[in-house]
Specification:
It is built from twelve helices and five strands. The protein has 262 residues and is of the alpha+beta class. Strands 1, 2, 3, 4 and 5 form a five-stranded antiparallel sheet that branches. Helix 2 crosses helix 6 (102-125). The longest helix is centred in the middle third of the chain and has 24 residues, at 102-125. The structure holds flavin mononucleotide. The site of flavin mononucleotide (FMN) has 12 residues, from strand 4. Residues 11-13, 15, 67, 131-135, 157, 171 line the site of flavin mononucleotide (FMN).
């Protein structure tokens, strides 16, 4: 179609990396592309922490549920919602910052995620591989301590970045017409939901069955379909509630869980 769209459509998460370092100029280009992303009010309420040091990556591997790509890939980029810089600037300028609340966390998180996706597009256009780490949201207190994040800074997502050592197939997506609504939200029926997830059910189940540890878990847990893999094995209510509690504690600690100025 055109090189940008071709590159976006060819996206695949990479989970195996060669140890070769990333060229400094390439990393700078990726970070520059990230910073060119839109941000709310052009306030740029995010920060990007670059981790290359192997010992520090090994520590982050622990905090990211021991996902091995964290140790393999030469660079990790941790994107944080960050109002610390903006708040200090306001205070230095005799301006009263009302940014210690949940709305501002969401604004900073959106800024951080949009910048991260620009970094992804830039990295992939250079032939590098990436994988997002959703685990960034699972142990916020550990990451805050590890990066010495001050108040009003909160880790939102992490990118593993490096030279791919695998070339996986494209992962399927749900039919586009199940995602896109024209003008108004289209009601969904049981039949349309079944149709939407029909291919995913079979492909997803086959994928999990092909991973020996997961196949074993499927057998011992007795789950019967892909949705049950999600609800009983991968993303359980109990675990989601546990993580949510830690997130709220961390948001309080970092100054974002308030609707009133302190
Ligand atoms: C916010 C976010 C968090 C993710 N977290 C992880 C993760 O912790 N580990 C992992 O292996 N993949 C992770 N992924 C990658 C997804 O599993 C992947 O994007 C999805 O399966 C689709 O595959 P594709 O990116 O190859 O198209 C994450 C993706 C996103 C957007």
């Amino acid at each position: 179609m055109n090189p940008v769209i071709d590159s976006l459509i060819a996206h695949r998460s990479i989970r195996e990396y060669r140890p070769d370092p990333i060229d400094d100029a390439d990393l700078q280009s990726i970070l520059h592309a990230a910073e060119r992303a839109s941000s709310s009010g052009n306030m740029q309420t995010y920060s990007i922490l670059v981790t290359k040091n192997a010992a520090r990556r090994a520590k982050l591997w622990e905090y990211h549920y021991e996902q091995d790509m964290i140790k393999q890939a030469p660079v990790l980029l941790t994107f944080c919602a960050d109002w610390n810089r903006m708040i200090q600037w306001c205070e230095l300028s005799d301006a009263d910052p009302g940014y210690d609340n949940f709305l501002c966390f969401l604004v900073g998180a959106a800024d951080a995620l949009i910048a991260a996706q620009n970094a992804v597009a830039a990295a992939e256009s250079l032939g590098l591989g990436i994988c997002y780490m959703g685990t960034t949201l699972c142990k916020p207190l550990k990451l805050i301590e590890f990066f010495e994040l001050p108040k009003y800074v909160f880790p939102v997502t992490t990118l593993v970045l490096g030279h791919p050592a695998e070339s996986p197939d494209l992962r399927a997506r749900l039919p586009l017409d199940s995602i896109v609504h024209s003008e108004q939200y289209q009601p969904i029926t049981d039949a349309s939901v079944r149709a939407t997830y029909h291919d995913r059910e079979t492909e997803g189940w086959a994928r999990y069955e092909s991973i020996p540890e997961l196949a074993e878990m499927i057998r011992t847990s007795g789950v019967k379909n892909l949705a049950q893999i999600y609800t009983q094995l991968k993303y359980t209510r109990e675990n989601n509630q546990l993580i949510s509690r830690e997130l709220i504690t961390a948001l309080e600690q970092q100054g974002f869980w308030t609707s009133d100025a302190e």
